[in-house]
User: Fold this.
Amino acid sequence: MCDKENENNAKIPQTETINEFGQNPMPQRIKNPRGTIHCIQIIGQIEGHMVLPQNNKTTKYEHIIPQLAFISDNPEIDGLLVILNTVGGDVEAGLAIAEMISTLGKPTVSLVLGGGHSIGVPLAVAAQYSYIAPSASMTLHPIRMNGTFIGVPQTYEYLDKIQERINDFIIRNTGISKLRLKELMMDTEQLARDIGTMLNGKEAVAEKLISEIGGLDKAINKLYELISSGKKDEKKD
Assistant:
């Protein structure tokens, strides 16, 4: 009985399987004479080791990480387009996905639509080139954790080290300075009852977090441009 069920499950297309978890199926691969693009959506809340309530729209890292490994190893895929509209979520899961995107070994372009908040910032800047819609926004703030902690000095050091990992990743993948990033994260005047900064599309570009203002057409054309450039370099070698 189990073998029969496994056989039936194996025949279900990936998009249908993911649809069972609340995500709408969409063509993940765009074939074009200029190259083949794989598209990944990072939407809602990034879900890590803890399962979120069913009424939350989530992106599960156990779905995204295998996809990225498949894209990296598949010679038929030339580039990756990452579309984001996320409020943030699990720090460890978000950083893991961001590191995989940044080290994919293939041309990558990201596009922020709606929002790329909190841990969504490293995810947005992980690509080789990034776009943000004029109406989109990004929120930078220090990490937060839920629960009760014993040992205040040790807890502070632990959180500080996690924050350093996030900051280092953002600095490595953007043009923003360490000092400016810290200033934006520690701003006490912008967010009610909180610290941090919300940036609109133009501000995110001005702060050198995002490469350019743009939409889907620009993102796709830029990705094809990077693919073409990579193929020319391979021919030279």
